[in-house]
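[recover] target loaded
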């Protein structure tokens, strides 16, 4: 896995994404969150096909912090299961890589 990663997650509302995102940045589990905006999701849940408006977001963090971020995300938001996946970053500028590392972690 690469040294820095992005964590893609979805939220039930902009307010929730903003609140959880701010908490995770303040707790240094992520260097940044980008709120990508509303998306329309179609998914299977408890045996039924559902549709909902959600807010997509991308967190920037280190590979080591990603599991902690996902666990904390599960504690802070309204979904029953954390809707979060890790995307490795294969290439990034050195300045960006160092910024993520310096701002994600204790």
């Amino acid at each position: 896995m690469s040294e820095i990663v992005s964590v893609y997650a979805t939220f039930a509302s902009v307010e929730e994404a903003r609140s959880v995102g701010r908490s995770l940045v303040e707790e240094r589990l992520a260097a940044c969150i980008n709120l990508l905006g509303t998306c329309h999701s179609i998914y299977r849940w408890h045996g039924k096909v559902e549709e909902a408006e959600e807010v997509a977001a991308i967190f920037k963090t280190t590979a080591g912090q990603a599991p902690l971020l996902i666990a904390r995300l599960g504690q802070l938001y309204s979904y029953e299961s954390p809707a979060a996946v890790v995307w490795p970053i294969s290439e990034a500028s050195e300045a960006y890589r160092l910024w993520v590392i310096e701002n994600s972690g204790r």
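[recover] notes: The first strand starts at residue 4 and ends at 11.
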